[in-house]
Amino acid sequence: MLSYDPPVADYMFLFKELIDLDKHRHLRGFADLDFEVIEAVLTESGKIASEVMLPLSASGDREGCTRHPDGRVTTPSGFSDAYRAYAGGGWAGLAAPTQYGGQDFPRTFATAAMEFRSASNQSFDMYTGWGESIAEIMMAHGTADQCDTYLTRLISGEWSATMGLTEPHCGTDVGLLRTHAVPQPDGSYKVTGTKIFNSGGEHDLTDNIIHFVLARIEGDPPGSKGISLFLMPKLLRDENGRFDLHNAVSCGSIEHKMGLKGSATCVMNYDEATAWLVGEPRQGLIGMFKLMNAIRRRTGTMAVGVSELATQNAVAYAKERLQGRALAGAKRPEAMADPLIVQPDVRRTLMKLKSFNEGARALLVWSGLIADIVDRTPDKAEGAAAEERLALITPVIKAYLSDEGFNNTVGAQQMFGGHGYMAQTGVEQLVRDSRMLAIAEGANGVQGVDLVLRKLGHNQGQSAFDLIDEIVAQLAANRTSTPSLSLVEAMAQALDDMREATTYLVGLGSRDREAACAGATDYIHLMGLVLVGYMWLRIAEAATRQIKEDRDESGEMAAKLMRARFFAERMLPETSLRLTRIKASADSVMALEEQWF
Amino acid sequence: MLSYDPPVADYMFLFKELIDLDKHRHLRGFADLDFEVIEAVLTESGKIASEVMLPLSASGDREGCTRHPDGRVTTPSGFSDAYRAYAGGGWAGLAAPTQYGGQDFPRTFATAAMEFRSASNQSFDMYTGWGESIAEIMMAHGTADQCDTYLTRLISGEWSATMGLTEPHCGTDVGLLRTHAVPQPDGSYKVTGTKIFNSGGEHDLTDNIIHFVLARIEGDPPGSKGISLFLMPKLLRDENGRFDLHNAVSCGSIEHKMGLKGSATCVMNYDEATAWLVGEPRQGLIGMFKLMNAIRRRTGTMAVGVSELATQNAVAYAKERLQGRALAGAKRPEAMADPLIVQPDVRRTLMKLKSFNEGARALLVWSGLIADIVDRTPDKAEGAAAEERLALITPVIKAYLSDEGFNNTVGAQQMFGGHGYMAQTGVEQLVRDSRMLAIAEGANGVQGVDLVLRKLGHNQGQSAFDLIDEIVAQLAANRTSTPSLSLVEAMAQALDDMREATTYLVGLGSRDREAACAGATDYIHLMGLVLVGYMWLRIAEAATRQIKEDRDESGEMAAKLMRARFFAERMLPETSLRLTRIKASADSVMALEEQWF
């Protein structure tokens, strides 16, 4: 059985030390924020995560979901009660607009609640957290009536939402979809088709489930230009205004998966189901892209959460498990053996996990703030710049964090030896659950193409160069504040690598898109390392400040500087390897004919 | 459902081109070997793997093993029949001595059969392959009667074997074991204790199961110096000479695991079970270590097998699945989309898998030959040198191949997108099954300590420097035969990195064992890369020779050179990163007190 201590203190450190709140008071919802309220929200969200959701994670994995012959899907025991606690506590609307009943808590801070929830129970988490994302689509593209009817109930958690995107023959290439919609005289549509990989397409947590479905209106052009977005409730309103008419949407089966067994992944059949257009016809992907980007960043958050949970438990095991002796001589001669944590390779692994988790968590906060600026600034120029930045880093946050978060669950599992392979220890479930993160919401390979061709391509890499400039400025500050830290020189090198890689890929991409994309995954990882390194620069500056001001009573700030050093000396040098690969000839990737694979 | 085409042709290429058989005719069993016989054996072993074992892999995973209330354990449906086919075909004794009914097929070639078997069904494979390993222990340490009685039946496959090592409180640190043995007047012992993680400790494939158990004879000293090895049959001989008396050994439960569900992992209770000493008292670890080393190399073979199976299926999917368009313009404009394999990141991933599999397979053959020299040469000096070499590379083969084999199953799974996460596709099982390889038979972190402290330490790195010298000589040959291949320069750099790392670690290890071990895992990976690169040098030389001699009708040799190039340009540069980490200060690993983890 795993235990979990939500990292509230770590978040509060980041909020207090890395974000100058007074510089952001002009953002909507930031004016009256104070740290006491934020800490109270985090503490409560941590409690529901560790006390309500975590205990259902292993049992949910064992029990899984069940589809009954009548098409009903039941979630694992306890999920219904947990959902009631979640919705009843107002968590479904934490970051959603107050206009429809939400609490409008900025993402900068709400990210913490998201991490705690996904760490404690990733399967359960898949049913939640739709409020703010759906609000964005509906407030931008929906009608007032749609917002009043549906959004309010989604934000209260009374109803839940699900996305119908993938079809058996098309995932990434959504333009191939076959689900089609026929306009009806009353303005509604009849939608027919089959969707797969529909997380929470059917379940027993809420009475109504609102399906957001991509489909092609009859007669619209093939490909992605002909795709519209529809709202399709499971339950329709009857003549008395009650939602108790079953729509022609049904779950044909649920998938048996590697992990996330508590999350119902449904095959959904629409058989002339009633639906309403959201936004303009053939503009379905516009709203969906914004939503997808939010979900991609959320995927990064989930990865940090599961990595944190795995790390906490690996650390605990390494301290408890007595096995072998310290190489420099017994540390606990009175015991039958020393704890595993005296072993260098165990420490190396745990330092890797911890230095990732802390730096990546700062990245979540920093990117949350950028997303908040996009949504909440009255200053158009500031908003546009933030949007540019957010577009650049979104694929990195999705892919780099999900790759490394998964790797970290594997690293944590390794600390348990043979016990880590056994189900009862619990950590193997984290490997299985987190494996999905690199696959779903746009497989990581696709994120690389997005970054290298779209995000670098549209302005000759200017967004990336702007980011480099910002980090260079931070580095200059660190040369004053933390001059002796090895992170300073390591980041200087990493930034050189990123600049060279960016210049190279921008040039190459304009001539040969395939060659550029042969290095796309390496570029994602290069930028991910630089971003986490950037966060460590800022953390190190803050920690040094606290130490100088005699505020490091516990010694945690000194420990942070050691983790910064680990990241600098053992993780950051990877940027040079990534650069070497990026600059390698694409021939060894592209030249062989298909038959030689 | 996965498909599998055993790489017989690839092995035959390696046998014919990389091994100069005539230089090894003096080895026992090599005199009359010819390629026709070898190919026939490989073809047959491939057939039983792909036709008999593979079809039971997914069903075995779903069904798992069952422990019945009476303590019996049943394996998944079909395993019994498959075992009969395996034993009936004489495969249990393929590499075992003829003296006891084996076929004495050298490991150099038998490795292929081992790879095919583990690729097709890793769970099933766990029950098999004991013949040759047990033969080594028993012929060296057992009595003639023990060999006659037990070894013959193990080699015929009539009976099976299992190892009782791990206890609930001790895995790696076997010296802590509590199982104890009390001598009896008739020369036997009564053994009492509990073992865990006992693969195949109980099952229904054979009537009798021979347990090889580590225990401490009453009164013997604590720690690893007091450990003896016992032979403990499940069924004892009755007064009529029939083996039908149940020994006091029983299965208390079986584990629920992440994968390998068709393999029964048992908790075994010995309750004054009758057992006989194998070898001298308190010398139990000597025999066990030799066995463990063979099993560690076998683990590397299993990793290559599962990586090959995953790769073959990922390649097939990438060629079939139509999704998206080639970045340089549609490749199949008449179809709804192009196959995934036109995408650079898909190709990059598949080239990585294939360049690993091929090079790693050559490494299995090469190390199999070294093991054969140890066992089969009449020349003592040659045998001693081979033993030194084998000791050096064993931890690398175990840890590097298992780490990368697992990573490759993850990479292959990624090619399937969301479908790869679903059980029915089959590839997620490979991720779960292969995850065990880095954990079992000495977790990979322990392999690093073995390499850096023991294998480098005992002769100041001379074994490693000898290996470097051998590769330098090969490199000189390649400078003539394949001068334009980028592999030549890449290997020169990689060898420099290995030499520098070795010198550094030998020096550091003599002063500060903990600091040296902070870089142990990196050193394992560095040497693994160099070894696979070495194999690619030899493959490239052979391929170039075939091309020059107009023997490359199919074009496969030219494709091999491209895979060599991929390995050189995109994999080998990792040695420099590994060196950087090895030379990084150990402070960031060792300095923090336990409380800061």
Tell me about this structure.
Two copies of one chain form a homodimer. With about 600 residues, the first copy, chain A, is α+β, with helices and mostly antiparallel strands. Among the domains of chain A are: about 10-65 and about 75-135, Butyryl-Coa Dehydrogenase, subunit A, domain 1; about 160-280, Beta Barrel (Butyryl-CoA Dehydrogenase, subunit A, domain 2), CATH 2.40.110.20; about 445-590. Helices cover about 55% and strands about 10% of the residues of chain A. The first copy, chain A, is built from 20 helices and eleven strands. The first copy, chain A, has helices spanning about 10-20, 35-55, 55-65, 80-90, 105-120, 120-125, 130-140, 145-155, 285-320, 345-375, 380-415, 425-435, 445-455, 460-480, 485-510, 515, 520-550, 555-570, 575-585, 585-590, and strands at about 65, 75, 160-165, 180-185, 190-200, 210-215, 230-235, 235, 245, 250-255, 265-275. In chain A, the strands form three sheets. Chain A has a five-stranded mixed β-barrel with strand order 4-5-11-7-6. The longest helix of chain A is centred in the middle third of the chain and has 37 residues, at about 285-320. The radius of gyration of chain A is 24 Å and the shape is globular. Chains A and B meet through α9, α10, α11, α12 and α13 of A and α9, α10, α11, α12 and α13 of B.
Which ranges of chain A are low-confidence, i.e. pLDDT below 50, for 5 or more consecutive residues?
none
* Biggest interface, CB < 8 A: A-B, 97 and 97 residues
Strand content of chain A: 5-15%
| Helix segment tally of chain A | 20
What strand order characterises the main sheet of chain A?
4-5-11-7-6
Oligomer: homodimer
Count of DSSP strands of chain A: 11
Gyration radius over CA of chain A: 24 Å
Computed structural class of chain A: alpha+beta
* Shape descriptor of chain A: globular
- Biggest sheet layout of chain A: 5 strands, mixed, barrel
Head-to-tail CA distance between termini of chain A? 43 Å
